[in-house]
Design brief:
The protein is α+β, with helices and mostly antiparallel strands. 38% of the residues lie in helices and 17% in strands.
Length: 556
């Protein structure tokens, strides 16, 4: 029996196997890392990895360099004028490690573990499950990347202790606090991060810096790299971007890096200090986000035993310097911080039993409630309400302590696995045209629970109104016009909608955008605006019902 783990990353996709207690990286072709680049050939077949990257300058309209960043932004990719399912592109990137593992181990894996950012919501997770089914995987487990990294940690850790994970990858930055349980790890508090900060962004800044240096020597050459449709200039631009990546790697080891730019037949140099000036503000933001994530759990700094640096860009000297200044000697990293996630996921797969289905059993409820044996290390939001079963469906949504809101009995035997069916996710309200998205894609984050207007929420029972007060003795009570009251009620309703609702509604929208960006006050502002909106609605409802009830009583 053997298991397979795949880490589908923004820049690279990696794989590892577990067999008889031994974890081993999968070498797909000549490299453990397959660039996460896909190209749709003229014949409709996928070309992936380095070959796709090499052809990207020739047919850029058929290439997607970062499919992971497209998840949650539509179901299709437009390549070569043809719309193709994004699940097919992701499945194609899983294929090299699947095929290499099959050739190495023989047969099919018992379990396949796929890692994902901790903040991903149902829409993106469903794409991952559907892609896994398209790649031929049946018994699929989804594992948050920080939990996978925690499984890679080979240090003894007491139950109840916490570690923090700082994951600066190619496309995104993620933070998380992980708690040690009796059998595994679980996420504590809410994960954080920033989808606008990653190694790819640093590469493009370095590319622009080098290109501007080229422009000072030969303005026409730099202009052609940016705007020309000529194949030779597109190739020159692609080469310069690849050289920028290599220079970034060199600057992690050396104080200066030089690249040869064939378009102008000259060397262009950059120092580490110059490069760090390009990314310093972003690195400071990542440190602040790590601190905010720890604070969101209610823990103190001293409650965090270690802070693990994960992701390829965490090797940058500036990252280790700034994190060391903030967290001191508790910083830990590895020679291959990117490999920590996939190797940890493979190690986690060794805790799965042959009988285990893709449905994860519930974990302990808070307060010492009776429990079912916890499933190690999984935490993913649930499918959208009303969705059918899907391959690798996750457990009920856990609270910040990791306990599910409602226990679900584990199946007694693995059920037959149907073809993957993506769960239907209600479309999110789109931002006004031109409004900033602050890096949050549709489907990002945990699903919302029943909101205002859901069954069970509303105005409490309103008692019958008192009868009209009689006038002085000898004088009849003046009749009240029902039609006038109803007209007045509708005028009041329109006034409310025009004058009262927009304030808290607009405030809630911008507060939510600030929360997505990671501003500390964003969550509080969002809650306050929603409460204001709800209270305003309740007061208006009470008033409106009062007018109608009074109107009805005066006509009876």
């Amino acid at each position: 029996m053997w298991n397979l783990a795949i880490d589908f990353g923004t820049s690279n996709t990696t794989g590892a196997t577990w067999a008889d207690g031994v974890v081993e990286a999968v070498e797909a072709g000549q490299d453990r890392k397959v660039p996460s680049v896909v190209l749709l050939g003229d014949d409709g077949r996928w070309v992936v990895g380095r070959e796709a990257d090499n052809q990207s300058a020739v047919v850029p309209e058929r290439v997607e360099r970062a499919p992971k960043r497209r998840l949650g932004k539509g179901k299709s990719l437009l390549l070569g004028g043809q719309a193709v399912p994004i699940t097919s592109a992701v499945a194609a990137l899983m294929a090299p490690h699947r095929d290499a593992a099959r050739a190495r181990r023989g047969g099919e894996p018992m379990h396949v573990v796929l890692t994902h950012p901790a903040r991903w919501g149902p829409e993106r997770l469903d794409v991952l499950r559907s892609a896994a089914a398209e790649a031929g995987f049946t018994r699929v487990e989804l594992l948050p990347e920080p939990v996978a990294a925690a499984h890679y940690v080979d240090e003894p850790m007491e139950v109840g202790r916490h570690i923090a994970v700082y994951d600066l990858g190619g496309g995104t930055f993620d933070t998380c606090v992980v708690k040690r349980t009796e059998t595994s790890y679980r996420i504590a508090g809410l994960p954080g991060g920033n989808e606008r900060i990653g190694g790819e962004d640093f590469d493009h800044r370095l590319y622009t810096y080098l290109g501007e240096a080229v422009g000072r020597e030969d303005p026409a050459a730099w202009d052609n790299m940016q705007h020309s449709d000529d194949r030779s200039w597109r190739r020159a631009a692609t080469d310069l971007l690849n050289q920028a990546r290599e220079a970034k790697e060199q600057l992690s080891r050396n104080p200066r890096a030089s690249v040869y730019v064939g378009a102008i037949e000259r060397d262009v140099s950059i120092t580490r200090e110059e490069f760090e000036g390009l990314i310093s503000d972003d690195i400071d933001r990542t440190v602040a986000e790590m601190v905010r994530t720890i604070e969101s759990t209610g823990l103190r700094d001293e409650d965090i035993d270690r802070v693990y640096l994960v992701g390829g860009s965490s090797r940058l000297p500036l990252v280790q310097q700034r994190m060391g200044e903030r967290f001191g000697g508790r910083i830990s990293t590895w020679d291959d911080p990117k490999g920590a996630v996939v190797l940890g996921a493979a190690r986690f797969s060794g805790t799965l039993t042959p009988e285990r289905s893709s449905q994860t059993p519930p974990v302990a409820a808070p307060g010492g409630a009776p429990t079912v044996a916890p499933a190690p290390g999984t935490w993913t939001p649930p499918p959208a309400p009303g969705a059918g079963p899907v391959v690798g469906a996750p457990p009920p949504r856990a609270g910040t302590d990791g306990a599910p809101t409602a226990p679900v009995a584990p199946p007694s035997a693995p059920p037959p696995v149907p073809p993957a069916t993506p769960a239907t996710v209600p479309p999110a309200a789109s931002a006004p045209p031109g409004a900033p998205t602050y890096g949050a894609a549709p489907g990002h984050g945990a699903p919302a629970g029943p909101g205002y207007g859901a069954p069970g929420y509303g105005t409490p029972a309103y008692g019958a109104p008192a009868p009209p007060t009689p006038g002085p003795v000898g004088y009849p009570t003046a009749p009240t016009s029902s039609s006038n009251n109803i007209t007045f009620a509708w005028i009041g309703a329109a006034t409310f909608l025009i004058c009262c609702l927009p304030g808290p509604a607009v405030g809630a929208y911008f507060a939510n955008e600030a929360r997505k960006e990671g501003h500390p006050q964003g969550q509080t502002a969002l809650i306050l605006n929603i409460v204001a909106l709800a209270l305003t609605g309740v007061f208006w409802m009470l008033w409106f019902l009062s007018v109608l009830a009074t109107s009805g009583s005066t006509t009876n």
